[in-house]
Amino acid sequence: MAFDLIVRNATLPDSRPGLDIAVEGDRIAAIAPSIEAEAGRIIDAQGYLVAPPFVDCHFHMDATLSLGLPRMNQSGTLLEGIALWGELKPLLTHEAVIERALRYCDLAVSQGLLAVRSHVDVCDDRLLAVEALVEVREKVKPYVDLQLVAFPQDGYYRSPTAAKNLERALDMGVDVVGGIPHFERTMADGAASVRALCEIAAERGLMVDLHCDESDDPMSRHIETLAAETQRLGLHGRVAGSHLTSMHSMDNYYVSKLLPLMQEAGVAAIANPLINITLQGRHDTYPRRRGLTRIPEMRALGIPVALGQDCCMDPWYGLGQADMLDVANMAVHAVPMTSREAIRWSFDAVTTVPARILGLENYGLAPGRNADFVLLQASDPIEAVRMRAARLAVVRRGKVIAEAPPRLTRLDIAGRPSTLDPASYRPHAPH
Q: Domain Amidohydrolase spans what residues (predicted)?
């Protein structure tokens, strides 16, 4: 029997070593030790980790790679970023948005990031960015799953035409209903926007992903309203609250009431550690709040928690490289959550958990699933997070679409090894 591709001697994320992965067409045909077969191509994994592709469940592709246009964010705050984006929007062209988005997708593929949920601003009456990203979604379909969220950046009620534009964007094929209740003029308007947006999603049979309570205000309560509306409208399993940074500053008693409401409603949480810790706490002196939501407490209740990148070289964040291991590594440090179990979980938070939130079909390493996976220069998921491991090969639907050499350093030191592989420095279990 012959296969199109066999990856030999791989370690899987569940720690099973020495396995071969056989691919036929665009699907995984078999996973077993020592598969006796020919193949059009054979990759020797050398015991390194093969994982399902990375998934970014919170991003803004309409703004990506626009850093410095038309100026820099001098304060580093969320509000100046929003104002700066407002200055840039009238200057956007269809071609420029497409060109930056496609370049970003190239970078994403090189990092093994093959699925992205991107919010796209609908407050420009031209809906230029929506049209551009709908076109990009089709262009990248062979190699990236791009899910779009209709996002009223300037406020569903605060922006005069946002409500109409959001419906137009959904009619154009945008996948998910978005919102930003904390940016409305009043808390009451924010709560009303949550209700209205959830009703639109219920009527259209769509998922919901709202920017929720992205502030340092401990009295921001929109995630509570989102959980209640999810219950009222029967949207269980279709709703995510992104950011939730105000929870970092909330009273513990209130949080002890809030989290069970989220758990009961089946609302997922999406934290964005790179951006949350740099945009939040900007009005503090010392101690300075880091702004990350309460990840360990939500996990303890079984609330699905995923990690997103949010931004990459745009008005809000001047760094980023489409690297979801960078996101996981930052979460481990910033929460902090340094147990072996928590570090291992952070790998799931950029792979399997966001895949479930996006509703990706046939995702994962099992026979019959899509032949989408990444070969990482690491022995296990914890080591991948620790090292932000090199992506040695990226496979999409059975085809190798990106490759890179392993990170190796040549040494010229008397009495020491001539070559250093950083993956060989993994800790060993005590005897």
A: 41-401
Kindly report the CATH number that applies to the domain delimited by 2-52+364-410.
Answer: 2.30.40.10
Return d(Cα 188, Cα 415) in angstroms, integer: 71
Tokens of 196: 């209205």
Strand, helix or coil for residue 399: strand
Q: Whole-angstrom Cα distance, residue 135 to residue 377?
A: 34
Q: Are strands 27-32 and 19-24 parallel, antiparallel or unpaired?
A: antiparallel
Q: What angle do CA 241, 243, 248 make, to 5 degrees?
A: 110
Q: How far apart are CA 154 and CA 216, in angstroms?
A: 19
In angstroms, what is the C-alpha Rg of the chain? 22
A 10 A CB-CB count for 235 gives 21
Query: Distance between CA atoms of 152 and 136, rounded to whole angstroms?
Result: 20
pTM of structure = 0.97
| Spatial separation of the C-alpha atoms in residues 410 and 227, rounded to whole Å | 55
- Compute the distance between CA of residue 78 and CA of residue 339 in angstroms, rounded to an integer: 31
> Could you count the other beta carbons within 10 Å of the beta carbon of residue 409?
10
Confidence at residue 429, expressed as pLDDT on a 0 to 100 scale? 64
What strands, in cross-sheet order, belong to the sheet with 49-51?
49-51, 373-376, 391-396, 399-403
What is the pLDDT at residue 1?
Answer: 75
Q: Pick out the chain residues at pLDDT < 50.
A: 431
Domain ranges within the chain, ordered by starting residue:
2-52+364-410, 54-358
pLDDT of residue 430: 57
- Measured CA to CA, the distance from residue 411 to residue 100 in angstroms comes to 39
Distance from CA of residue 158 to its chain's centroid? 28
Residues 307 and 56 sit within 8 Å (Cβ to Cβ) = no
Residue-wise pLDDT tens digits, 174-212:
999 999 999 999 999 999 999 999 999 999 999 999 999
Pair of tokens at residue 388: 């932000």
Domain 54-358 has CATH 3.40.50.1220: no
**Amino acid making up residue 104:** Y
**So what's the pLDDT on residue 428?**
79
110 CB contacts (<8 Å, ≥6 apart)?
322, 391, 394, 402, 404
User: CA torsion angle for 347, 350, 352, 356 (degrees, to 10)?
Assistant: 150
End-to-end CA, the chain:
43
Q: Which residues contact 34 (CB under 8 A, 6 or more apart)?
A: 20
Catalytic residues: 214
List beta partners, residue 56.
116
CB count, 10 Å around CB of 429? 4
